[in-house]
Amino acid sequence: MMTHCKSLALLLLATVALSACGPLKDAVNPYEENFKCRASADTGECVDTPTAYKEARYPDPDLEKGSGRKVTGARLTAQDQRYRALVGLLEQPRKPLLQPPKILRVLLLPYRGENGELFMTRYVYVKIEDSRWILTDLSEK
Questions:
Q1: Is 61 in the same domain as 78?
Q2: CA-to-CA distance for 120 and 80, rounded, in angstroms?
Q3: Are 77 and 29 contained in the same domain?
Q4: Cα 55 to chain center, whole Å?
């Protein structure tokens, strides 16, 4: 019977210690629980993880990124002008572009040569495709 009471007392003490209530709370969790956000308006905002995920995954197009504020008319106008400039560039006649060659970097591990030479680790660069013109009328003919 005495062993049963000791086991029960030990179990009760372990439960209290692990649940971090009572006098052992400060020993289990030494950190302050009343956290105060110190983020300024231009460095971000303090939100919980689910809210941050939701805002990152499904942003509100009417909100300014990261601030939670509505986009002002001036910012919307500037963004509109950038989009119009981009559309203008895309609508212009196509200009030829030169696609760079494709280069393959091959790692050669150390090996011994035919006459006992030691060749250490090094890279060899091999051109596997030459440069070529793209967005030209040549491919259309």
A1: yes
A2: 57
A3: yes
A4: 15
**What letter represents residue 97's amino acid?**
L
pLDDT tens-digit series, residues 27-48? 666 666 566 777 776 677 777 7
> Structurally, how many domains does the chain consist of?
2
Q: By residue range, what is the domain housing residue 7? A: 2-91
Q: Are residues 26 and 80 in the same domain?
A: yes
Is there a contact between 28 and 20 (Cβ–Cβ < 8 Å)? Answer: yes
Query: Which residue is it, tokens 């280069």?
Result: 103
Query: pTM above the 0.85 mark?
Result: no
Contact 121, 107 (CB under 8 A): yes
Per-residue b or e along 5-30, where b marks 16 or more CB atoms closer than 10 Å to that residue's CB: eeeeeeeeeeeeeeeeeeeeeeeeee
User: Do 26 and 45 sit in the same domain of this protein?
Assistant: yes
The DSSP code sequence of the chain is -HHHHHHHHHHHHHHHHHTT-GGGHHHH--S-SS------TTT-----HHHHHHHHHS--TTBPTTT-PBPPHHHHHHHHHHHHHHHHHHHSPPPPEEEPPEEEEEEEPPEE-TTS-EEPPEEEEEEEE--EEESSSGGG-
